[in-house]
Amino acid sequence: MTALRIAIVAVLVPFAAVAPTSGDTANPEILPSGLSPDRVESRRYLDYARECIDLLIRYGTDRYGAIHSPLLMNIVDVRTRGCPENPLALDEAFRVIRRGRRGPAGGNLYVDQPTIRAMFALAQATGERRYADFARTSAGYTMNHLVDDKGLFWWGWHRHYDAFRDEMTGHDGNHHEIHIQEIIWPELWEVDREAVTRQIEAVWQWHVVDKTTGECNRHGDGNRGCDFAMSGGEMLYAFAFLHAKTHDPKWLDRARLLADYYWNARDPETNLTPNRPNAGRERFDGSHFDTSVTGFLCRSLLRAFELSGEPRFRDQAVAYLKAYARYGYDADAGRFWGSLNLDGTPVPGPRIAGGYAQYEPRGHVDVWQPYVAGYEHPIYTAQVYAFACQIAPDDELVQAAERWAGCIRRAFPPRACVENAWYGPYAKDWAPHGTYAGHYGQSISFFLHMHRLTGEPGYRQFAREVAREALSKLYYKGLLRGHPCKPYHEAVDGVGYLLYALVQLDQVVQDGGEQPLSPLNW
User: Fold this and answer.
1) CA-to-CA distance for 427 and 407, rounded, in angstroms?
2) What's the whole-number mean pLDDT along residues 446-469?
3) Which pTM was predicted?
């Protein structure tokens, strides 16, 4: 392969601290789906997933520039079925803040992993190996051709591949970044175990900056930086995964080290831990607990327990989850608080306007908020409670999962979000039309698992209601869009989660809900 030019921008910007770019949320153009909710089930849910994936395989890869490849494009215009070289800004100011996170004019496997997982699920459900074959080829391209000089994949929230210029490019330093995305290690291991091993070894070398305390940095530059719990959780899960594959005890020790880093930072009276221990108590993320801890750190700890059987991973996750269930639920309002002081007291609203503090989710959680990163992840959190009930059955956890189900059902259909937040224009102009594909997909998956957990048929029926809403809003001539107000199939909007959920839901509808579900849809 010809040498790829790497554009390095040596500007280090704190997480989410830049001002939102100008977007175009006013008067959105709504493309017709041609489907009313009552007509959606005239076809199998599997057929919608298959149709979309077939079109992605045919039109959604790198067909641009001098070098063509099986890399999926992060943005596909559903009207032309091509990747726009200069995509419209649209909700950019509120969905991603930084344009590069969308992977404009190119691809980034990091955000397309849910789509790759959906392809594997579709292959298993249909018996058609071509979907898995494509997924392996597409993922393998990044793992073997888009790699930096440290051995780290060219993916993440700062990097993408520009298909028109045939360049590995990015923004704000082009860091390798580990953020909120759960990496699909089992699937990637089947594609190329040597590449996975090199990647995880490089994560230990470059992201864990203190090998004695476990302090880490979301950026892979070897320096101190943002030790977000969501990032550390993903790293410890990677180490536990490599231990499960190699049986080398050092990887389990490394996973324990990172888990204990956050555990040691907790308030021992409440078991609430700060999102970012090294930020100091002056910053809210250095002194508050939020749903990125429950949604991502706890998820990773439970995954690590599944892989290793190490009790501390399970016990720490359960302690955090029970603490949030105890202090984070407002029984009077029937809602959860978005941010807690470490002593367990909630941080009331309204949300702050301007400055970094505006990203703190003060007041009650906003179920359908638009920002893909940040500190507010209620649906992920709901899923983790359902997952924890399977791993460590407990009445308190079941009650919390049921409370989350109630919160989501009362907020459905998604037609509103917090208006006095920094994303106020989105709340005014876009939220009334629906929400993102990922929100729909993860909600479907959560309610299917709640049905399996409790046996309550209402949960299964609600999953179908969410799917009918999602398809009636997002379907367009075979492709699924990222949001009802966008003309784009966009990876960062979580379309892969919806594709995966449709395969899951079809499985439940066809077998009457008797067979085991495929893994949770993250």
Assistant:
1) 19
2) 96
3) 0.95
Mean pLDDT over residues 90-106, rounded?
A: 97
Short-list 262, 256, 199, CA closest to 228: 262
Report the DSSP pairing between strands 61-62 and 69-72. antiparallel
Tokens 């508050």 belong to residue: 288
Q: Which one-letter amino acid corresponds to residue 121?
A: A
In this prediction, residue 26 carries a pLDDT of: 86
Q: Which residues of 64-140 form beta strands (DSSP E)?
A: 69-72, 75-77, 106-107
Contact 172, 118 (CB under 8 A): no
CA distance 421 to 408: 20
Of 303, 272, 304, 306, the closest CA to residue 290 belongs to 272
Q: What is the DSSP letter of 297?
A: I
Distances (CA, A) of 5 to 165, 167, 183, 509: 9, 5, 26, 49
Residues 6+ apart with CB under 8 A from 243: 249, 251, 252, 255, 307, 308
What's the helix, strand, coil split of the chain in %, to 5?
A: 50, 10, 40
What's the chain's average pLDDT? Answer: 94
Give the integer Cα–Cα distance in Å for 126 and 54: 13
Among residues 166, 195, 170, the alpha carbon closest in space to that of 183 is found at 195
pLDDT tens digits for 60-89?
999 999 999 999 999 999 999 999 999 999
Query: DSSP code of 369?
Result: -
Are the C-beta atoms of 298 and 321 separated by less than 8 Å?
A: yes
**Residue 188 to residues 136, 185, 248, 397, Cα–Cα distance (Å):** 8, 5, 19, 31
Q: Give the tens place of pLDDT for each residue, 459-504.
A: 999 999 999 999 999 999 999 999 999 999 999 999 999 999 999 9
